[in-house]
Each structure stands twice: as structure tokens, then as C-alpha cells.
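Let us begin with a simple case.
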Amino acid sequence: MLKLQIPKNRMNYLIKQIPLHFDAVVLEQGWEYYHKGRVTEVDLKGTSIQATVAGKKVHTTTLNLENFSTSECSCSYDGFCKHIGATFFSLYAPYGRPELVLQQLKQQINTRKKPIRSALLAQERKAAAQANVPMEETMPIDWHRFFEGKFHGFSISHQHSIETFYDSALESLPPFAANWKRTTREIYLCHIVLFMMRKIEQFYQETKSSYLSFYHENGCKIAAKNCEDKLVEFVDRIDIPASFLAEPKHWLATLKMLGEFALQGKDSPIDWLFVYRFIWWKLTAQAGAQKEEIQRLDTLLAKKELTARKKDTLIAARAHFDIIQGDTDSAFERLGQLAQPSSKDYFLYLNHYYNQKQWDLMLVWLRFLFKSIANANHDDFRTFCQFWLDTTKHLDSDSEWVQVMETLLPRSYYYYTAYLLQTKRYRQWVDLQLANRISPLSLYGMELKAIEEHDAALLLPLYHQAAERAVLEKNRASYKTAVRLLKKLHNLYKQLGQDDRWEHYVYRLADKFSRLRAFQEELKKGKWIR
């Protein structure tokens, strides 16, 4: 839709009037409303502009282009509100970038020292003034306010990508804590990553309806994974027991914020459940903090208005504390209540027990996962199979692994067939190809050669089946394919010293398909019949 463009002299008039009537905070809120596309139906009526601005409610604004002080809005705010500000930025858009004029107007407002309209605005301005640098003794929530101030107004566009934000945050925010004591600095670095995760989630939500949403979403997912890796890196550097003892207030505040961020059950590129469980697993010695969090989770789960997604998130979080306390049975009982279980949510535990070489617990979790793995995506299914294979190497028998692979066929075909070759179970390998109607022409030559060297007779039914299946396709190309298979089959019979059996077979085959003249011609070319 084309934007309404008022005369330039009228726009210059508005630019002069804005600093005289607006507070910087309210004006910035107006820019946010404009930026989120909440200004609609902008019309010129005489010397006034009328517009509709959608917030919690829909409001109508009127901007007087000759006497701006008489401009008004249908909202209840006493003075010039964010809705009027949003309308102004909508009018300025055809002339330039609204975010740049916002900064100019804020500077003018701040130098005027205009009277403060309310105690709330005074507190906000004072807090903003104090947020020039983060303080070591302040709480994490104050650090996050500082982070927000540094990146306020940053949006995803062609010029500002999610990668730009990620690199800029990691480069600009850590130096502020360079001279802090180590224990506080380590927690501060973790909060930088948590802030980045929140912003990435915000960018993801804001760009979902954009025509470039695929590219933004992909960028958000890549940045989210980088953030998760960076958080693991930062947390692993910390001596958690000593850090908690030195900075108990910061840690408790961190855990409180984490509970608020991670358990909303939103559609997000961030794997918040992983972040939540990973950090809590590092705090296994903090029984008091665990007890409080368990009580909080139980209280949340008792609420009736929970969405299915949020309830699943809370159940998985609550089950995590059962696992921390060694009560795997209770954890499985809780996880059995999930409406939409996801296999990838449990790889945290598999990775942990794998690294700890706790193969008995690996087996327990693999058995539990078996129920949900059949519907997992390709990457999760592959990870599951690899975990099973690595665990099997430490068991007395591989019979359970083989049974699992057979049950998961055909998805497990590539993993199962490779394992059968590796363990030289050639007869089972051939049976698997026969059951899946796989042609020898689709198999690796090295695989066929290994079986041929072991026992060439095992390959006979594989070539028999493939050759006859090719003939049944009844076209010249498939007949040529059948002849290629028959040549190999002939060589196998010769190798086994069973020429009589070959002649009997080929004449019986010719008789069976005697009406297929083109196939008969191919057999004669091979000099197998006359």
C-alpha cells in the first residue's frame, strides 16, 4: 500500500513541534508501534491527518498540521501519546528512515530539560541514565536492561542480519566486565548468551510473517545453535560449586530468570528445554535451590489453563529433577504423560551417560526411547542408531540391537545392512536384500565381492530374483538389464562348478517367458538358448 506523503513544509513543521510536546520515552514507544506495523488507514482530511493505531485496543489519532498542540488521540493518556508518535513516524517514512529521525528528536528532547510528567517516567529516565555501563554488584536483571539499551531498535533487515547481531553482541558486551572478579565475570558472560537467545527468539517471532521469513528463520536457527554451543562453552569453564558459594545471589537470580525464559512452551528456534536442563544439571549439589524449583514447577503444573505445549515443557522440566536425584522410574512415568514426546529432548541424557561411559543407563534410556524413535526425523533417527551401536559394543550380546534394527525396518535398513556386513552375517544380509527387493546392480561392488569370496552360493537367489523381476517389466531396456544379471549369475554357477544347474535354470526361464519375443532374442544373443 502506498504511504501518504504530506508536503515537505508540513513535515518540517511537525519535526519542530515533536520535541516541544513529547517525552523521549513515549516517542520511542511510538516508533516501536510504527516499526511493528500498527499504524493503518492514514488519511488527509483538510489540514489534519487521521490514522488508526492498533495496540491492546484500536485508537484513532488526529494530527493538526497547522496547530500541532491541538492534536489528539482517543486513548486515555494525558498528553501526547505513543499513538500520535507512531502516526508521525508513518508520515515521515516517505522522507527518510524513521529510526534516524528518532535519535535526532530524542537528543533535542533530552537537551531541553522539559518538566517530567510523572514519577514513573522519572524513574525510567534515571534508570536509563545509570545504565551507561553494567555494574559488577548489580543483579543480572540490571545487566539485561543494559544489554537491551545497547541493542534497542536493532531489527532484522537486508542491512542488519541475525549474524550481525550475534557477532556484535559477542564483541561489544564482554569487555565491560574485563576488570570484574572472575566469579562474577563468568556469570555475566553466560547472561550475554541468554540475552542473545532472547533477542534471537524475538527476531524470529517478529519476522515470521515476512516474505523473507524462510531466510530469517534459517538464520535464527543457525545463530541459536551457535548460542547453545557458546553457553555450553562458558558454563563448562565455571567451577560451579565454588562459583555458587562465591555468588549465591547472582546464581539464584540467574535460575529465576532461566525459569521465566525457558518454560513458556513457545515456538522458538532456541532449545530452551536443553538450556534449562543443562544448567540445572550443573547444580546437582544445590539441594535447597532444587527444592524451591521443584515446588515452583509443581505449582505451575497444577494450573488448569496450560496449553498442551507448555504443559509438556513443564513435565519434561519436572522429570529432569527426578533424573538428577537418580529416580529414573519416576522420570519415565512423568515423561509418559507427554502429549507430543520428542526423541531429541532426551539426547542430553544419552550424551551425558555416553561421555560418562555408563552403559547400563545408556541401555535403559535407549529402551525407553524406542517407543518414540520410529517417528523421529532423519537426523535424530541416525543419532539414535549410532548410540545403540556404540552401546552394543560394551554389552555381552548384540541380540537386542539386532532385534531393534529388524523392528525398525525399513528405516534402519542402511544401519542394519552395514552392521550385518561388519559382523560377517552374510546369509542374513542376503535375506535382508531379498526382503527389500534390492537389485545387485544397486549394491556396492565391494559388498558383493566380500560375500562372493565367502560363499558365492549365497548370492544366487539375489540374482535370480532381480533377473526375473527385470523380465516382468516387459520392455527392451529391462530385458537388457536382466541379461546383465544373468551373465553374473552364469559366472557364479561356473565358479561353483554347477554348469548343469545353470543350463537347467536358463531353459526353464526361457520356457517360462516363451511369449516374450524380445527377451528370447536377448537370450539368443547371449548364446544361452538356440
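The second case is a distinct protein. As before, the sequence precedes its C-alpha cells.
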Amino acid sequence: MQLPNRTTLMPMMIGTSLLLAACGGGGSSSSDNDNTSGSSSPQWVQGTFANYSTLANQCSVPLTQKLWLRSWSNDTYLWYDEIIDRDPAPYSVAEYFDLLKTNELSDTGNEKDNFHFSMSTEEWELLNGSGASVGYGMELSLRQASTGVSRQVTVAYNEPNSPASEAGVSRGAIIVSVDGVSVANANDSDSIDILNAGLFPSESGQQTVFIVRDLNAQTDRSVTLTAQTVVSTPVQNTKTIQTANGKVGYLQFNSHIATAEKGLYDAMTTLSNAQVDDLVIDIRYNGGGLLAIASQLAYMVAGDSATENHVFERTSFNDKYPTMDPVTGQALTPMPFINESLGFNTSLLRSGVTLPTLNLNRVFVLTTSGTCSASEALMNALRGIDVEVIQLGDTTCGKPYGFYPTDNCDTTYFTIQFKGVNDKGFGEYSDGFVPSTNPTVDSEVPGCALDDDLTHALGDTDETLLSAALYYRDNNSCPATATAIARAPAKTTFIDPGFMLQDTRNQNVLQNNRILTPLASEQ
């Protein structure tokens, strides 16, 4: 198989994540001084756009940085003709970037672009390369009652060898208080600031005192956690479940970052050697990442015969570039199902190694609203080659779009540049993939609507989503609990301690999602 040029493998389908340490976005502050003196300095002229390459990396003049953003967006943004061309002078660099997006709504009345953000390049390189970031190593589930009465923060999972795991703060533990401030009832700005500072540490070495109630415990306990740089483990809990009807493989896949290539290779090798009959992929907290990783995983699930002469995804850019990728300058070519390693981290796995395969004609996926982007592309691509996808959990985030992370002046910007469709030409799932017992449209997937079960460990066969997958496998129907899903009372946001996982909106909403708000203003 001929692989695409390496540069075409780097577009990101990044799920909207809570980039916890990056909420500032890396742009200049509101005190930016637009030094526009001198006749040679570039100026804003409405409707006129300089080539953005001539404006790049001129970091001493904020106006030039903003004009670079403006021209770059006008050239590569998927909906460039829906950006209002504003004079950048009154805005900081970060503020101006926030405005360089569409304000239009989708056909269903939702915001068309919920995925516009930036972060420091240094932090982005750490996150993308290894998932490294400052934190305690625990992903949090934040449930804020729609009535505005109380909030609850629960640990969704922790990273191995992290401060949280070493202190025994694991899935299902409820954070009762942070440095003496009640999570449920804090409602003044000072208390909210303490909660945010403790839950989302910005510096290594920061110590925070938590009162936690562990899963099934009758009493609370005090735990002091010290923030440190935590490296995420994107593939965890690979196991084989022996059932009366054969072997079922299970793996927890948290993010499509570079180190996931080796983790997936090892996991799928283990499951292939075990000759599993079915596979459950737990992507409930996977907000996306490298499309090439998703393509490799899809190939390992389906195998040679199912993927031969088919494509993983076809991408398209804005109408200025019907046949060319505006970022790489190369002709548009579909991304194949990739059947060998690419060597994202050669110290872990060299390039050119043939990938293991399971050769399955169906796969079970466990999802939440935090399942996003490259994870959705994985589901869509498999459906495009008639591998049956059974979805257990909640509706996914809805992001059939991607971007090339682009650096300018030590800030990396993420703006929607392309959209993708599968081998059958389907890619309209902007409202997410919906598990349904009676699918009627292409964005509805056979399966069962269920809430995330924080009362059992991930990979536990009694955990609601995994249990439902095993039940569906035997009965081709949903368990009775699937009809009892209750969505109305709570709004859940999944908060990753360090990598991009779930529910990023634009810069401002990203901050609102990662930062707790006073009860009086909660909706």
C-alpha cells in the first residue's frame, strides 16, 4: 500500500477538549500596543488580504500578528466567507483570533463552529508528543445541576503512576472540598477562585488539600496532592473477557496522540494472539487527535480484506481549494486505511512494521459526549466499509472537521480547515452519532443510550456500558436499563488533567467549561 506523504498524516481531528493548563490561549493581552508607525508597516484594508506567509513570525508588532491571523483564516478557514472582516486595532491578538470564525448556525440550530482555540506552542508540543502536562493525573467529571442547586466533581479515571493514583484517588471518588471550600455549595467569587486554582493547577509543585469520598465509602478522607508533569497513557486496560459465546477483547483508548501508536500496536497484538471473537473499544473519554492513528486502529479492527480498495476518509477544504490541500500545497488524496506503523515515536515503535489485525466484521464502541473528532472518524470509517458498529452510551460530540495546528509567535492556533467523509461519502454528523434501537438516519447508530457509570471501574464487566455491550452481543438488543436513561437533571463535562479530551468550544467557552461558575449563574 502506498502511504500518503507524511505531511498529510498530521491533520488533527481534535476533540474539543478542556485544555486545562492552556485556558489563556497564548495570545497577547488586552494591553497589546499596535506599533503601526512607519509607512512600510502592514495595515488593515477592508477586503484586502496580504499573503499570510509574508506576515508570519513578526512577533514584535501585535498588529502584524493579527493581520497574519486574518490572512491565514481568510485563506484556510473552512467557512472563510462567513468571517466578519473587522479592523483588528481595538483587539488584543487573542481577542482578535476569537472573532475569526463563523457566527452562523447549523441546519439544526446549533453553533456551526464550536472548535476554535489556541494554546502556547510549547504546551501543544508536550501534549501532542506524549500527553504531558501539569496536573494530578486525574480526569474529572463535572456535573452541574440544571436547577443551579449544586455541583458534583467525580473522578472519571486516573493516570498510572500519577499523584492521584499513588494516593488512591480513583474512578468514582467524589471531590467534596478543595482547600477547605465546598465543591457543592461554593457561590462567591473568592471560593470559586480557590476551587479552580486547586482543581486546575498551573505549576508543578503546587499542593492542594482535597476532601474526597471514595467509591462505596461511608466516610470522607483528606488527601494532599502535589501537582507535577504527568505523562498520559493513552491505551489502558487491555483484556480478554471469556464468555459462554467466545472471547471478547476490551481496551480503553483515551486519546489519539503519538504514543498511542505503540500502545495500540501492543494491545491489538495481544488481542490477535488471543483470537478474540469480538472487540469493545472504550472511547468514552477520547476527544481525538491524529487521524493517522484512527486509520491504523480501523485497519487493525477490520483487516486486509475489508479495507482493500477502500479509503479511511476523503477530506475537502474551502471552495478556494477544490483539488489542493492549502496547507501542504499537495493534491488532495484520500487517506487510506494504514496497515503499517509510521514511527511517530521511533524509540517506541519504528516505521514500516506490519500492524496486527483482528479481521472483525463488527465492533462495539463505548461513548459519551466527550467522544469526539478522530474517535468519530474511526466509527464513521468502519461504517463506510460495512463493519457493523454498535454504540453503547451517549451521543458523541459531533465534529466531522479537522485542522492543522499552526504556530505563529510561539502560539499554536487551531481553526477548522477541512471536513471528512467516509468511503460511502457520509460525513454529516455535526450533531454527533446517536445510539438508537431503531436507527432511521445515517447519524443514528445501532445500540443503546446509557449514562456513564462512575460506580464501577473501567473494564469491569458489571460497569453499565461494558455490561450492555456484552448483553447486546448475546441478545442483539439493549438491556432494560437502557430505557431508563435520565438526561435532563444534569449537565456533564469531562475534564482532562492534561490532554485534549472533551467539549472545547471557542476560547471563551473553553474557559467557561473548565472554570466553575457561581451557582447563581449556572444554567
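The chain has three domains: 17-113, 132-231+488-521, 235-484. The chain has eleven helices and 25 strands.
Keep these points in mind for the review questions at the end of the chapter.
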